[in-house]
Amino acid sequence: MRQWNGRWIELIKGSLQTQYVRQYPIQRVPMNRMLQPCLRSPSNSKVVPLTSFVRTLLVGAHGRFIYSSSSQVTQILQDHVKVSSSRNSYYGFRTFCTAKDLSTKKCVPCNATDLRPMTEQAANELIPKVPGWSLVNEGGTLKLNRSWKVKSFTKGLELFQVVADIAEAEGHHPDLHLVGWNNVTIEIWTHSVGGLSENDFILASKISALDFHHLLRRKAVT
Ligand SMILES: C[C@H](O)[C@H](O)[C@H]1CNC2=NC(N)=NC(=O)C2=N1
């Protein structure tokens, strides 16, 4: 397995440093729709997402990105590299699918022993996929957060019920707050890992897809 990982790393290094990095500007890097494997370090102790690995390859000797910005690299990889946290491993790599189809994915049981909290960098790369949601760090615990103003206290409870139905279906649950009778805030994080997992983004995406505008207070016309 280790030799195979090493081979894989050499392959990527080779292709990126010879074929693409010198000949194509970043926007035309013809990266195939490859599955983003996580590369295992030789000691097998560390799992490095390919996105970060490739990004280090694109850093020139002088420590600056050969390309205009790391966000471009991330965007290229996000668009072309499939990312999700499916459990199925492929030759020891965790396979992923695009962050774009979060709302079509299913949450996985949170009691899996290999579930780890997502890094802040990974969370920042995913947050654009759940518009309206904010990434907050509460005493070192990363969470997703979104607020609404509802028409009344009872409409707030109705909104909770609609969200509860989704949460129960997904087996993954948000923290629900109803403050000052009409201020609803939903926080989503994975309690079993003390941080964020892809489950949280999946649930946020499904909550965003719910139609509960009839429960919300109309925005004051300015
Ligand atoms: C086995 C099942 O996945 C766990 O009990 C679930 C239930 N819902 C959950 N919801 C959230 N947000 N975090 C959890 O860790 C969690 N665990």
Automatic annotation (TrEMBL):
Membrane-crossing segments per the record? none
Task: Give the first-level EC class, as a single word.
Answer: lyase
Molecular function as annotated in GO? 4-alpha-hydroxytetrahydrobiopterin dehydratase activity
Recorded hits in Pfam families, A to Z, give: Pterin_4a
Gene3D superfamilies to which the protein is assigned, alphabetical: Transcriptional coactivator/pterin dehydratase
| Coiled coil segments of this chain | none
Give the reactions, separated by semicolons, that this protein catalyses. (4aS,6R)-4a-hydroxy-L-erythro-5,6,7,8-tetrahydrobiopterin = (6R)-L-erythro-6,7-dihydrobiopterin + H2O
Q: Name one GO biological process term.
A: tetrahydrobiopterin biosynthetic process
Protein keywords: Lyase
Family in the record: Belongs to the pterin-4-alpha-carbinolamine dehydratase family.
Domain of life of the organism encoding this protein: Eukaryota
Q: Which InterPro entries match?
A: PCD_sf, Pterin_deHydtase
The enzyme's E.C. designation = 4.2.1.96
| Entry protein name | 4a-hydroxytetrahydrobiopterin dehydratase
